Amino acid sequence: MNTELLGITASFVLMLIIGIPLGKYLAKIFAGERVWTDFMKPLENGIFKLSGINPNEGMDWKQFLKAMMAINLLWLVYGFFVLLYQDKLPLNPDGNPGMTADLAFNSIISFVVNCNLQHYSGESGASYLVQHFIFMFLQFVSAATGIACAVAVFKAFRDKTTTDLGNFWNYFLKSITRLLLPLSIVVALVLTFNGTPSSYAGKDQFISLQGDTVHVSRGPAAQFIAIKHLGTNGGGWFGANSAHPLENPSYLTNMVEIVSQMIIPIAMVLCFGYFIKRKKLGWVIFGVMMIGALMLLIPSISSETGGNSAIAKMGIAQPTGAMEGKEVRLGPTATAFWSTFTTIVSTGSVNGMHDSTMPLTGLWQLLGMMINGFFGGCGVGVLNYFIYLIIAVFISGLMVGRTPEFMGHKVEAREVKIAALITLLSPFLIMVGTAVAAYLFTNHGNADWAVKPSAWLNNPSFHGFSEMLYEMTSSNANNGSGFEGLGDNNIFWNVSAGILMILGRFLPIIGPVAIAGLLAKKKFIPESAGTLKTDTVTFGLMTFAVILVLNALSYFPALALGPIAEFFSMPK
Amino acid sequence: MTTKSNKLFEPALVQTALKESFIKLDPRIMMRNPVMFTVEIGTVIMLYMCVYSFTHSGQGSFAYNLIIFIVLLLTLLFANFAEAIAEARGKAQADSLRKTREETPANVLLKDGSIVQKSSNELRKGDMFVCEAGDTIPTDGEITEGLATIDESAITGESAPVIREAGGDKSSVTGGTKVLSDKIKVVVTTEPGESFLDKMIALVEGASRQKTPNEIALTILLASFTLIFIIVCVTLKPFADYANTPITIAALISLFVCLIPTTIGGLLSAIGIAGMDRALRANVITKSGKAVETAGDIDVLLLDKTGTITIGNRKATQFWPAPGILPENLVKAAVLSSLADETPEGKSIIELAQQSNMCISMVAPQGAEFINFTAETRSSGINTPDGLRIRKGAFDAMRKLTLNAGNNFSADVEERVKAIASNGGTPLVVAQNEQILGTIELQDIIKPGIAERFERLRKMGIKTVMVTGDNPLTAKFIAQKAGVDDFIAEAKPEDKMNYIKAEQQSGRLVAMMGDGTNDAPALAQADVGVAMNSGTQAAKEAGNMVDLDNDPTKLIEVVEIGKQLLITRGTLTTFSIANDVAKYFAIVPALFIASIPALQAINIMRLHSPESAILSAVIFNAIIIPMLIPLALKGVEYKPIGASALLRRNLLIYGLGGVIAPFIGIKLIDLLISLFF
């Protein structure tokens, strides 16, 4: 096995070794069982006492969502103003200017919703205050929000019939104190010791061998990068994200970063099974997600290592595969590996430029974000999968001749309505967003805007179409990565992506929590031989088929005009 | 029933259905079905495009637009035809039942006691009428006085006459049936046009047909799929403009119609109607479509022992004399005590005695006094003028009788009684002058084949419960022998009710069958209550289905009909959605090949030309509907092989099959079309 493959295999194995036991641990935490991190209890109790919250007070699904929405709205509003006036606030040694209103709108939404799209450039667009107390803070709390909402859904199926989904503040705080904070400290330390900066000093400078003066941005980056991955946020301290040598100094940090973005999504899936005491369900979902992930990963690796046929035609040998946009120290295999996982789990950090990957790799990246349920973001991945699951339960329930039920609760018109709306949402946002962009580009290319639509695309034609489709898809999926050929810091992209992000975040959280709340309230029906079991391989297969068919049907024409057309147009 | 036809497409019905297919194009009617309504809008646009392309260029030839228009129109007509033929079949079935109640004269009994002849149409609820031998009963009613043998073959197809009498659980008479003997007074129970049958016909005809809960949920899902495809098709226009690929309106609409789930959308209401029609063919009248659907969800089935699990009644199988008693004496006493006993058990004792080759007089002595069975004494018998007091009855009642008289009760007899009971038999103890003579063993005969049916139910996940008046020991034995899961012994009406409530409390759905007035509360409480047509009016009102055949095993059929209904919907939905994969591979390359030749690579079916590809896809989309009508009407077969296995099976046939079939179908149509294009 070559070292590149060995490297990703090791990363893969490490993900499982950490992710699996973490799932059991999470189930224990949220069930309130005794765990070794109980030494954090006094701190938690102090916070609860200070804020006057009773963590044991149950909430029904409406109360739960109200609490979640209220706190998110608060972060959104004050964050917006801090971004707008960062130049007048302290901790700005490099003198970065305040953001424009549309950029602030986009950026604050982007971080509140765990997307981290970053239309600003990391080191030069945001002050230390913003990076630290707005962005990094939001990276913690947005991940915890997602996890808390997923646990509410788990809780709905733990009891037979209940209106109590648990306490939002309790799940939220525990996600931070027992999971995100301790893991971040460990990861940040590893990064710091491997060369990632971790200081408050401003830009450094040196004179290169050519005699140019080079300014090097620094800052407290290591801690930011740790939570960026653990919380599946993806927003880099530096503009170039984890392709930047200070953000991702070595192969070791590359492994640490890729592993840390996968462990919580993996753990959450298994946590579902352990938490509701149906271990098998967790593993079946895990299996479906893993097969989906591998089906995106393997062709990505093969198309990246295969090299670019256009370059081959020029008579240039590509022994290491397609190297455009890759870090030489990491290689195309590690980038393909990273690009697959970062798109399926909605992290959106990159260690190579997605814009430069092969057309088919781009296709798999897009598909990963469109599906958005193969592991998916912290907490929200399970929620997205849950919607597919409800659709699968409904259709297969009919197919076995019984009113569909999930975990002993009948799935009826109301639940199907919500699930159908959420299913509808992604194609609606992505396709309509891309259509508007394409329309403006084609018909109003010379509109008198700060950045003319005709200047949006670095690469016109199919690839340009992919760039627009990718931006909308990434926003809707709260992924945050980009096909960087797109000129996106202008009013159209800032506003449209902002709207997509906020709708693509909260509706797919509200939907599943509402469905779970409604189902949990219903009478519990004991299982019989006629009941369709949802923790079987057969049902897993059914869910997989639903995911595949739904997404293929929604996006095939768009994908055909983007990456597929590009692929078939390449020289053979 | 003689008019029952198993042919799916009878010429007369097809004719009505064809006419209806056009009438149903009315947008006000189409609106009920969101999927097909959008197809109608598309068809109207295509009509406009035909006119437009006649004078303009750039939107394809007139002929091409016209053909697409015609195919879309056919799609609509096919869907309408599916619904219309299902309606027509249901109606024909109901009509043949209704035919039995054409106008007949009724002898109406006025309050003053006089009798007036009226037409059956004029009868109102509460009127009284009289029927004698040879009369046809004018309308549904309940006997208030008298007893009659009635020929119900017009409804049930069963030629053996039945007895209906006032007061009991078999007091209902149905309009159109014929009185064979005796005379009855009947009170009318329904207003004209409001009988169960009328309600059922209305359900089939669509005017008052309400969508069932699962149907609503499925319609929502299908509507959301339709919306997704509206988005896909509308956004395709700016996408294509970006790629400099003009797309004709005809191509866009074709793509849209192909993608939306027209197959299931077109067949959905036909499936629902066919479900009720199947129930009707099984001679079950349902009061709502929901009841049929609920039947498929049943978890617990309450079945009466007598008539369902065992054949009719218990039969005497053996005489067991007490120690020191001559067999002949026992038989003689048993016969004497049973001579006036009209119960089937009593008759079977005499039958058994006749077979015993003993010379026993079958005539009661002059002046004998018969003692009827009462719930208090739990025994019956005879007092002869020569001072014999013969009693036969339940073991504990007889023991009390002998012990009270100061006689002892032989331990041997007690042993025998227990032995009989534990064998599933019912012991009847015979005493003469308070002295025990011996025991008569009565045995239940379990219906042949019933154990297999219970096994089938168990595999469906349905728990069967036997309800019987027998003692627990006997009940247990029969329950084991027949293979039911549970039993309620010594059941009183409220026991049934409590059992149902307890099961429902724990989340299960319960079905039961009943006929008596005292069954009515339980029938109403059960999720599916099937009342026998012979039962009292109260029972029929309380249940949500009426079984015209009075067949207690009918419940099992009803459950399967309910399951079939859901399965047919589920599988055709899967099939419909799975079809889209192939349609994409036909249409998407066709849309773009002109300007992006590279996309020829995804034309994996190698279809002849863009036009032929689009036409083939819409034609396939249209003709698949009539091809599936037989399946929609007959229903997809239910197999009790466990939910997961069933899902695997249906996923393979309708999911994988649904992906593959259109690839073959579209390619074949394309081969044919390419001869002309």
Automatic annotation (TrEMBL), chain A:
Keywords: Cell membrane, Ion transport, Membrane, Potassium, Potassium transport, Transmembrane, Transmembrane helix, Transport. GO terms for molecular function: P-type potassium transmembrane transporter activity; potassium ion binding. It comes from Mucilaginibacter pallidiroseus. It is a multi-pass membrane protein. GO terms for cellular component: plasma membrane. Part of the high-affinity ATP-driven potassium transport (or Kdp) system, which catalyzes the hydrolysis of ATP coupled with the electrogenic transport of potassium into the cytoplasm. This subunit binds the extracellular potassium ions and delivers the ions to the membrane domain of KdpB through an intramembrane tunnel. Its main location: membrane. It holds the Pfam family KdpA. The lineage of its organism: Bacteria, Pseudomonadati, Bacteroidota, Sphingobacteriia, Sphingobacteriales. Belongs to the KdpA family. PANTHER family: POTASSIUM-TRANSPORTING ATPASE A CHAIN, POTASSIUM-TRANSPORTING ATPASE POTASSIUM-BINDING SUBUNIT. This is Potassium-transporting ATPase potassium-binding subunit. The system is composed of three essential subunits: KdpA, KdpB and KdpC. The keyword Transmembrane applies. The keyword tRNA processing does not apply. It is found in: Cell membrane. The chain crosses the membrane at residues 6-27, 64-85, 133-154, 175-193, 258-276, 283-301, 374-398, 418-441, 491-520, 541-565.
From TrEMBL, chain B:
ATP binds at residues 341, 345, 373-380, 392. Residues 104-205 form the P-type ATPase A domain. It is found in: Cell membrane; Membrane. It is a multi-pass membrane protein. The keyword RNA-binding does not apply. The active site is at residue 304. Mg(2+) binds at residues 515, 519. The chain crosses the membrane at residues 34-55, 61-82, 216-240, 246-271, 584-602, 614-633, 653-676. It comes from the Bacteria. It holds the Pfam family Hydrolase. Keywords: ATP-binding, Cell membrane, Ion transport, Magnesium, Membrane, Metal-binding, Nucleotide-binding, Phosphoprotein, Potassium, Potassium transport, Translocase, Transmembrane, Transmembrane helix, Transport. CDD domains: P-type_ATPase_K (cd02078). Its EC number is 7.2.2.6. Part of the high-affinity ATP-driven potassium transport (or Kdp) system, which catalyzes the hydrolysis of ATP coupled with the electrogenic transport of potassium into the cytoplasm. This subunit is responsible for energy coupling to the transport system and for the release of the potassium ions to the cytoplasm. This is Potassium-transporting ATPase ATP-binding subunit. The gene is kdpB.
